[in-house]
Amino acid sequence: xxxxxxxxxxxxxxxxxxxxxxxxxxxxxxxxxxxxxxxxxxxxxxxxxxxxxxxxxxxxxxxxxxxxxxxxxxxxxxxxxxxxxxxxxxxxxxxxxxxxxxxxxxxxxxxxxxxxxxxxxxxxxxxxxxxxxxxxxxxxxxxxxxxxxxxxxxxxxxxxxxxxxxxxxxxxxxxxxxxxxxxxxxxxxxxxxxxxxxxxxxxxxxxxxxxxxxxxxxxxxxxxxxxxxxxxxxxxxxxxxxxxxxxxxxxxxxxxxxxxxxxxxxxxxxxxxxxxxxxxxxxxxxxxxxxxxxxxxxxxxxxxxxxxxxxxxxxxxxxxxxxxxxxxxxxxxxxxxxxxxxxxxxxxxxxxxxxxxxxxxxxxxxxxxxxxx
Length: 373
What we know:
The chain has 373 residues and is of the alpha+beta class. The protein has 6 helices and 22 strands. Helix content is 18%, strand content 38%. It has a 19-stranded mixed β-sheet that branches. α4 (105-117) crosses α6. The model is unreliable at 169-185 (pLDDT under 50). This is trans-L-3-hydroxyproline dehydratase. Homodimer. Keywords: Lyase.
């Protein structure tokens, strides 16, 4: 059998064009492509301005690394950038098939291991090493298990998470406008007209990104047994309805005030030692293979707000797609502007899947990527 020598197998192909070096990982089955080199400088004096700059000037590189032929419709990426705060060990921009997220829990879990293993933290500590990660939603603290030079499970403390409803404004085309009055008590749900399903009540909660929550049984579906296509169609219809009918607000930045996706649940919101399952559909109908770190954060905040889970009471959240699990618990009450919220601790495991050097040949007409749907 013909085999190339080690030296030739590791040699990059001859070409003219761009080069990218990436480290691939997964957390609960959800991919993360960490972009180590190949990008030009991402300009901006803050992480949110860098996010805007990447979206406006470097989006062709996102498509090249997330889309086919180098990626796929459900690829997820993390670009390490310079941090404007000395408290951060690293700063990161998150990317996916539609654009750029503000928070990603599965990525934070993977980046925690990566930061320790790739010496972004100078002096690892046993039994845990703290890694401060500046995300577009704010500074997130990750804690990486570390013993005998090896990294393990990662937990992180979220930015303030809260149930959204104060000041929410809804309107339906041709119908009356609806307002929610700002009071000390949040309104935990809103009603939207969902194409093909009629009026449905959804919860909206923030965990570094905004999500709509609804029981999959409202569509006659089961998050662990139904066809993925049917779950995606239902969640996408809810996302479309909320985006068109609900005006979101975040007290820190308008850049954070958008709906990231819809999370279908198994309806088991009250605390139980048994896992509760959900499936997150975000961006452009992208399916999260993990339980969704920022989604778990938002769901814990929602359950705590409704009195269904107590402070420091750990719940297990299971992915309807893969069965992988995260744990989550509320650990501190906080305020975010006028919202009363909580800091949530989320825990999970990430694993390496490969290291790649991608190239862009100048004559390749498909070099900027494509998606098939």
